[in-house]
Amino acid sequence: MQSIMRLVILGAPGAGKGTQAVILSKKLQIPHISTGDIFRSNIKNETPLGKLAKQYIDSGALVPDEVTVGIVKDRLAEPDCINGFILDGFPRTIRQAETLDRMLEELGTKLDMVIDIEAGDDIIIKRLTGRRVCPECTAIYHLRTSETARRGICEKCGAKLIQREDDSEETVKNRLKTYHDQTEPLISYYEGKGLLVRVGGEGSAADTTAEIYQVLGLTE
Ligand code: ADP
Ligand code: ZN
Question: Which end of the chain, N or C, is less surrounded by CB atoms within 10 Å?
Answer without folding.
Answer: N
